[in-house]
Amino acid sequence: MRIRTLSFMVAVLGFGVGSFACSTDKANEGQPADGGTSGDVPGKCQSPGCDAGTSTTDGGTSDGRGRVDSGRVDSGSTVGPCTNPVFTSSDPHEDHTFPNGYTVFNNVWSGSGGPQTIYACSPSSWYVVSNQPVLPDSRGEIKSYPCTQWMFNGRALNTLTAIDSTFAHTAPASGVWNASYDIWLGPGGWDIEVMLWTDYRYLATLPPGGNETDRPTIDGQPYIAWAEPDHKYIALAMTQKKTSGTVNFRHVFDWLVSKGWVPANAPLHAFEYGVEIAETNGPATFSVNDFSVTSR
Prior knowledge:
The protein is mainly β. The protein has one helix and 19 strands. The chain is globular.
């Protein structure tokens, strides 16, 4: 796996926020939010979900509900609030792979992270109870990223004519967090990170300083977009925040390619949705009530 930490080092406030791939590796935990340079640590995803089938026997690509673009439906996935979990864990590094190839991760990756328990009914229906501390010297540092992951395992972007995703989440009206997609691309699997924030509570003003920025509107949705100078970390934040909706990622990637931020033929590796949690100041519940990705 690969870690990239991103500090939104706001000059006045000094707040930092980090990001971390959904897949966890204990050897890489607790990296500092240092601006995405010294915190970069190469590694390998240790979860069975990293190698779970990228395609079905009929050539379709599965989504988080167990569906495929060919129309065949797999059983066992649910959406909506999770009420009868089939997987529960308080292990910071635990994950669970479902029969349709999707993996959910508890993923408390920071060495300063607090307790967190995940309850999963399906890849598209789960929640965590998380208690992440407020650290005066590193306000906003991400402690965990509970999420669902689907692996594309290197399919080139320019061979995909459609990449559509649905999402839904609930989160508290306090704390510091962002509900977000985390997408990893590149020949090494973890070379380029693209995040798309659908909803968030952030400590300062976006975009953070020291980055290339833009304000695109894609499919009627306005975004704030920013990229590190080397384009290894890219983020888009919905300015009209949403707790549920649909994203046409083919159009998102078309815009990123037009900007020169992502190569047109970049291999697509991991596709994830979850919540980056920085601070809760007491136990708080975050849930994902829908997640799907379909492609062709």
